[in-house]
Design a protein that fits this description.
4 copies of one chain form a homotetramer.
Chain A (H helix, E strand, L loop, with lengths): L13 H7 L2 H4 L3 H17 L5 H19 L12 H13 L12 H37 L4 E6 L2 E7 H26 L1 E2 L15 H8 L3 E2 L3 H6 L2 H27 L7 E2 L18 H24 L14 H23 L2 E2 L1 H6 L7 H10 L4 H17 L9 H7 L13 H7 L8 H15 L1
Parallel strand pairs in A: 3-4
Antiparallel strand pairs in A: 1-2, 5-6
Helix pairs in contact in A: 3-4, 3-6, 3-8, 4-5, 6-7, 6-12, 6-18, 7-10, 7-18, 10-11, 10-12, 11-12, 14-15
Chain lengths: 455, 455, 455, 455
């Protein structure tokens, strides 16, 4: 059964049918399609287009189909070109010609937009939840080693001392922002297009506000052409997913690095690593690599839909059918990645001793300059003086910490005996006392703020 | 003058300097850089790092530089590798070594993030304003021909009757949503990173909350590593710009179509068209084509930055310098496109007669089916019956409107004499009375809602 | 069975297994995997690592598995993490521990690269063939109406007279170039990585040149690290597919336009159109819209893999597993699109009369200017004079053709009585006699050149 | 002066002019535009459209303009909307109305395509040369330490022993392939569109084959519509640039890693590093980070143009003007990056001792398995046995190398006294004797092959 065809003089070419058919992927919308149809049946009755009794039969028939899907019993047939056709076909089989009344005043154009929005509303919730779980695992891990010192890097060079907790939290905040982006996508999606017909609106006196309420939408679309043409919500969803995965890729990339034998800061649990078919000793951080690699895929999904929408003529065009697969794929990718990373973080072993061993004296060079500032030297001059000390240390094959006081004083008389205190790790951490810094109290405040943001 | 180099044993290679230098493009941040430095000087004095008198000299010196930039008098020198270096160099020339105190406790990492966020906050405001102006022009145009009938298309085929006002408003709503996306980007940007140092925080007791207030930021960043690594606000901006331009591309594509001699629905004012070097008769809709074509460019800007950020290690890496040019380019593109399209819409000539001539009887086929529904025929059956009528009309080389009543009745006895009333344009428009539809009252409500949304 | 794990102290987490597993998609490589393994077995025997008898048993066991796959009898088990594991597991079931010798000196890293290259070599051939068929359909169609005049457009405005054949051929040439791009991708793929081990080469004296010959590769890779890291061939394939689909999108976009009632130049066969669930009269050009829309998807596939590869560390990283799905998807998309478009072109109905009716006098304006050039007027002046004639015609609500001679002469005395001849359609077409132009002979030459290029 | 406008009733809006104008960027095509015009002047004379004397005056006038540009003396005026207009305007100033004859039978559509192709032909040559220089520097560096052992990584974990020369060559081969891609782009570009007019061909009897020869093109375009619509050559160029930069990003990413204090394999020369404004000790590998980061930008350039071209109607549309800026930007980026990386590689210091220290016993695990294969153990079993040895070593906090023979024999009796020989570095390298492997002779052959490929 097709929902059209009366006007055609011959059947659709088989390959065309295959190209057009979206059932293989939009079957995922079965729940949303049925809920939407049930609400529509009620609205048609409200509007007097069908009787209440008819509405009840329609709703019950649809319930039966829902159960078939949930039980895995739904049997698709060749001609089911999309989920809407499949449901209407099956409904006809169950309740007879009355099924033909369901589509009154409705088009697949507004129907699919409704289904898809409902699906995305739920997808945003799921991903937000999974992101929250990952954040919680990160916060718990960060709390355990909130003040454990480690080298801080910029340009992957030793910069200043930071702590493990500080570092790990620096990757939680982006995810906290991602929850906002998912919430924005959800808001975009929560506007009901149903009742917009093919593009011109519906001929029946449907109360769209009531329909929105029935289906859990916050608002109704204001223009029937825009209602069937708009895919902003899908873009917003793909964008939120892309940025989220880019954030994961940055954390993953650095964890992969920390996991090399050369760094040796962390060790991944055996349950989260894989081996090699050839090299018996290998223990590979595959989940982290996939977290990094899949961000490319999600960028591609976003780019693809933007390019598909670009230059598209007004209203509904079949090109819009290309919206679903990238959305499903981005969702599936993150739905698997997020819990895997949650487990990986929860089972991660730290090597604090190794981190501490890597705390080179170089990391205190800025503290040295700040020390000179404390002695009244303008920062720019202090910077240059410490630069000279660095060169001297390199030349003498020693370190800033091992330079003798008179060597320091040969560079500037502002260096005094207390210069040795500069290389104390905790003192250095605690000097960064402004909000967002590495001092004990700043870190505790930061952790609390992050915990609060997740609530 | 470089802000570093004490530690190096030889000068930078000339090509490396050229590759690294961002001054040619980040000079655009001069205002933000100076405002940020002035606030920092005040904060250093607040914190007791410098005296109030020193702070005053710094602020006044910076004022002088601001005026030099505004007057076009600022003279860059070869060694100005970025705007920060240029300003500090010039400040040293003006006020002497005291300038060297300004950079205390600050890094270019937190400085550039601050400058760039300030710039984007303002850019969002400018684009939101320009988008509003365009929307207003569209609303005014739509109001003039709110009820002027024209063919509505899906798949670029005749679908149902709509009106010009309805059609034009369908392109205003996406832009209204874009204003939200710009506002979201602005919120993302309005978080102050200053006081995060290179990555570990600042050693001086800076009151970052006060600093945020001074500079007009809503909040401060909570983690100093994230503060220098985060470019979400730039992505949010590029994303908002991309979607906005994709929306413009869809409207432009359809206007280009309506402007063909075959459609002939509109005519572009001579001031908004261009000619051909070879073909004397040509009047080309170049601004519309550029609105369409440039959306590719903006998609590229977004994709590019996403790819740059993907897999980047923690904290600051030089790769982040690649954030500015796409942002400036997307801004400049829209800053020019939006007012041009505003003018084009304001001066557009409609050809309502031409639109009316194109209202084929086909456009009423759904009304016919709805008519049968009114007679008690289930919609699916009604759809098939009208499909037969369409085929009959094609076979008889006539139209649905010209089919005789007995021809209709040969298809179904539900057709009666009143079938002729179906082809009345206004009646058809008014039947779509639900919100978002084409009826007179629905259109008036829609226009009001759009006006309200723009306020 | 896993091909690794001896070194691990606990099993892989279930979700990690699911994330890592590539069997659901790389099972498509079964044929290539088995052929590669058979060649490897022969090579191991050649190298004396195993006996000829052992090699024979391996090859026959693999043959059995190949038949199982081809017959749809292969039964995967949960632990089959990829096609390589599945095949080795099954081989062990069939021939016992001897199967364990097959992986000597080989890694999944060089194995998968080999499988994938073999697959792409074949995919290029398939797509090249399908592209050729489409081109042939276009050439046949173009030949039928090689000289049928129609308006030529630039900026979608009437520019000059062209012919249908000329227009359709203008979309065949890009496809002919695409065949080159596919051939380039095939050449990229036809370099054998097998024998590179995990990254360092193989410890056994394998004759890789002979192995390449056995498997039909043109060359062997020259560096074992590059051999397992290189995915250029996948990029080349995705790029060729993207550009091909962009070309299809341009043809499709214009055909959709020509198919509107306003243009009415063509009509799509009922077998290649679809209808509407709501609007009984609709006949939508869905295949053309999908040809246009899917180009976004293919651009996304390319962008995604480029982003995945960007910044990836040397040698093999798990991120590389993300190479297959976009390649399979781009192939499947085009494998369906190309034959559908071939059928659509073969069954397309032209309306030459409609095209002829649309030949406005404006289309001859350049001919008019060239006429003046023939009278000795510099082209730039001629262009301006004809521009005046156009304005005069607009002002007088007439056309260039209908302007009286004295009106022409009021603009320039170079216009003479023979100006009327300019508006002859065939004369205009035939004036463009240089190669690539619209004259009868030029078009015939072009058609021949295209036919030759396809051979 | 505009090249059109006779037909318009009012001047172009100022912002529209600014939006449309391409002179700010296409002025880069001045040389190509002038060479193209000179060839066209000669062709017009050949065709009898102008006299030989006129042609000579045109060519000489154009020569004068070329010199003005080269001397930096060319003065643009506000109305120069593109390079073609600017040159024709200036030519008119120099030689008077005769300049107006130059544009006979030519359009800016075929002219700009010709200019741009000429520019890209040259750009390919420049980039190919710069890539070759970089490769040569890499080969020279690789030759110096062809056999210097270092850990080989997969998944950034220790895999097997390789050598520095082998590693560096693994990044040269991709660049060698990039030269092919650039050559393909050059071939794409080397087809002459001139003589195609606006879209329909030229009315004058131009010998296009002779014109192609005059300008150094290999062929002429075969269809005048395709000739003005085709931008495949620009895509091919952008694609070649993207892949090249992705290759650079992978090498750069790993060099950044090798440059961390934790790895310490290499040291970048001071002339190729930069410092920090805050941290006096910093020596940052900025050029490598930019090589990595800019690959995002180049991916964006490619994606952007693909999206711009997607769905574009036939023939010339103004959207095509968006082709130039991404091409110029990708060229400029690589023109700077390639020589910088060449210098960086030439001045790189290796720390072979550090690499040697990092050669853990784990790297020989595959050799151990191969050893067992040599004793007749099927590889899969050997792999599992060595896996047990790895676990035993971890448990005993020792290494594979330090495990006692009886510990080995407790795992398998196939281990014998000669197992100790397995951990010899050179022996391990030399075992990989097949082509592309790490043995001395294989590496020498590889180097020779690479040198040959560059010739």
């Amino acid at each position: 059964m097709k929902l059209w065809g009366g006007r055609m003089s011959k059947p659709t070419d088989q390959l065309v049918h295959q190209l057009n058919a979206s059932f293989p992927f939009d079957v995922r919308l079965y729940r949303e399609d049925i809920l939407g149809s049930q609400a529509w049946a009620r609205a048609l009755a409200e509007a007097g287009v069908i009787s209440t009794a008819e509405s009840k039969i329609l709703v019950e028939g649809l319930d039966k189909i829902l159960h078939e899907f949930q039980a895995g019993d739904f049997e698709a047939v060749e001609s089911d070109e999309d989920i809407h056709t499949a449901v209407e076909r099956r409904l006809t089989e169950i309740i007879g010609p009355l099924a033909g009344k369901l589509h009154s005043g409705r088009s697949r154009n507004d129907q699919v937009a409704t289904d898809f929005r409902l699906w995305i509303i739920n997808a945003c919730e799921q991903l937000e939840q999974a992101t929250t779980y990952l954040c919680q695992a990160m916060l718990e891990n960060a709390e355990r080693d909130l003040h454990t010192p480690m080298p801080g890097y910029t340009h992957l060079q030793h910069a200043q001392v930071v702590t493990w907790g500080h570092w790990l939290l620096s990757h939680a905040w982006p995810l906290i922002r991602d929850r906002e982006r998912l919430a924005n996508a959800q808001t975009s999606a929560a506007v009901l297009p149903l009742g917009s017909g093919a593009l011109a609106g519906t001929s029946f006196p449907i109360d769209r506000a009531a329909l929105a309420k029935d289906l859990g939408f916050a608002e109704v679309t204001q223009n029937s052409i825009d209602a069937v043409a708009d895919r902003d919500f899908a873009l917003d969803f793909l964008y939120a997913c892309s940025v989220l995965n880019v954030h994961l890729s940055r954390m993953a990339d650095t964890l992969i690095l920390f996991n090399t034998p050369e760094f040796g800061f962390i060790e991944i649990d055996d349950a989260y690593a894989t081996g090699s078919s050839l090299m018996p000793q290998k223990k590979n951080p595959d989940p982290l690599e996939l977290a990094r690699g899949k961000s490319g895929r999600l960028i591609g999904n976003l780019t693809g839909l933007l390019a598909t929408l670009k230059g598209l003529p007004s209203a509904y065009d079949k090109d819009l059918q290309e919206d679903k697969e990238p959305v499903f794929d981005s969702y599936d990718t993150l739905s698997l990645l997020l819990p895997v990373l949650t487990g990986l973080i929860q089972t991660l072993t730290l090597h604090p001793q190794r981190m501490r061993e890597r705390l080179s004296a170089d990391l205190f060079a800025t503290d040295l300059a700040d020390y000179l500032v404390g002695k009244g030297v303008p920062f720019r001059e202090a910077h240059a003086l410490v630069g000279q000390a660095v060169r001297l240390a390199i030349k003498n094959q020693t370190s800033l910490k091992e330079l003798a006081l008179d060597e320091y004083r040969s560079i500037s008389e502002h260096f005094e005996a207390d210069v040795a205190d500069i290389f104390d790790i905790n003192a250095s951490l605690n000097r960064k006392g402004a909000s967002g810094g590495t001092s004990e109290s700043a870190l505790k405040m930061q952790l609390k703020a992050a915990q609060k943001a997740l609530r």
